[in-house]
Amino acid sequence: MDKKTNEVLKFLIDWNYLLIEPPVEGSIAEIYFCFIASCQVKGKDKVSWLQFVKCLQKLNEICIHNAFTCMPANALSLTYEDPFKCFSKITYIDRLALNLIYKQVKLSSNPPIEPPKTPPPPLSRLRLAAQREVPRDKEERLDLLMELVDRPPVKSKRAASDLYAGLSPLDIEDIYTTTSRSKRLEQLSLLLSAPAGSHILAKERAKLRTPIKPFFDCCDDPRHAQLLIPLTSFDRATNYCKLNLAKLNDRLKNETGSSDTYTELARCVNQKIHFIPIIQSQTDTKLGDCSYLDTCHKMSSCRYVHYGQLMPQDDSASKKTAQHNKNINKAMQISDFTRGEAISPATRPELPAQWINCDVTKLDFSILGDDFALIIADPSWTIHMNLNYSSLTDSDLLQIRMDKLQKEGLFLLWVTGRTIETGRDFLKKWGYQVVNQITWVKTNQLVRTISTGRTGHWLNHSKEHLLVGLKGNPKWINKCIDPQILISSTRETSRKPDEIYGMVERMVGPGTRKLEIFGRQHNTRPGWLTIGNQLNGTHLVEKEIAERYYSASATEA
Ligand code: SAH
């Protein structure tokens, strides 16, 4: 097909799509003027009136006289001197037929369809070069067209830049092609599968702002731990060991030529973490490791083996992370979009930590305000275990007016095995939709998953769940930054990993009010108000909250 016919074809497809209701009724001259105008916009060569009519004829021939319905029926075979003398009309453009030709032209490298040499078969039958019969039924026709529409390419095979390139028209030419249905569909599917710019930005910002710790492997040679027993001293307060370098150097000096045990040990001690058995007078090594290791409540009398941790001596890894951590202040200058405002944490630092020692079931929540972006609660659910703090029955907990604390935002609720379902139910009753669940996989001191925890009825509990409830439709939440799984070691009974704060703070951004319910002193942090009955008194810095709280306590007294 020649270039001009191709241009007319493209124009007709696009132009016809711009009109809402097919079929189209317009004089051929009118369509010609529109075409000329579009050529002008695109900076293309002019096509004369006669050429234009010829192109229409050609297209109609390719489609076996079925592309256009004209008035009079033979309008395209008449001769017109100029457009002003043509009063014939095109009353129907078969979009399907035109699209099929367009696809053929685009897809095949050979000049594809030539007008059939034999006289056209009856008008009702439209056959294409592909010899596919065009169904009569409109639905079926559409299906066939959709089949021919370019499928979006397999994503993994395309570079990301390629993938997104399709999202925006690159030049004026593209703007015209993107009005075609197939291109628009492709763009739409690309758009839907592309991560939002806000997600990408939030993720990058989080990477720059999150302090990192050096990562070390653990030594897996059991001989090293044995050799290190006489070379280290143990500090019970911290559970860490200290290396006696002088002693190690002595051993290195005495090492005979053929043996390199200590040379190898010195190299390993520089790079990896070692766990050194602490042999006390009561320790019976035959019993093996204590299940609780460093969290054992009776370490000074326990007969099982405990360990002290010896950190790598080489500090080059720490130097690398220190460099990143130094740049965090710079990253803090970048504004963050949070709660509908652009905030730079550098200009609006978090409020200092605040806390209230109280019985949560008795506190009037209206004192606290209702604009928390985030709430986290770790209730002492009734479980069959002796704990050193009070617990709550399910109905006491449900009665707490959690529904009053937020207009919109996130509510994270720690649940235990039995209470996963109860927790979901409670969140819904408080006005939240449970949108996700964060899982904390517990590791022990030796960085292995817990196989014999303190809790568990059917199976040993080696994980805990944090339900993520959402109220309203907050636009300011940073989505998809962290994964929903967190691997971290256990500490005191019920104490949750600190990493959780980083995760949830990244979701709501800086400068937002955050509330922790059933928190303890070690949970207090800048930006957070912590409430619970094991806190050291009350410490409030927000003036209105302090006033409301103290005047309510005075009335009570
Ligand atoms: N998430 C915490 C552990 C919370 S344990 C951490 O990481 O350490 C549950 C806490 O809720 C305990 O401190 C318990 O004393 C407290 N608590 C139980 N009932 C309470 C009540 N009615 N009012 C306030 N605090 C309560």
From TrEMBL:
Q: Which GO terms describe its cellular component?
A: nucleus; RNA N6-methyladenosine methyltransferase complex
List its EC numbers.
2.1.1.348
The record's annotation in InterPro entries points to: MT-A70-like (IPR007757), SAM-dependent_MTases_sf (IPR029063)
Keyword Transferase belongs to the record: yes
Concerning Pfam families, the annotation shows: MT-A70
Record key words, sorted = Methyltransferase, S-adenosyl-L-methionine, Transferase
Q: Which reaction does it catalyse?
A: an adenosine in mRNA + S-adenosyl-L-methionine = an N(6)-methyladenosine in mRNA + S-adenosyl-L-homocysteine + H(+)
Q: Does the keyword Zinc-finger apply?
A: no
Gene Ontology biological-process entries = methylation
Report which residue ranges the record marks as coiled coil: none
> For this protein, what is any one GO molecular function term?
mRNA m(6)A methyltransferase activity
- Belongs to which family? Belongs to the MT-A70-like family.
What's the protein here called?
Answer: mRNA m(6)A methyltransferase
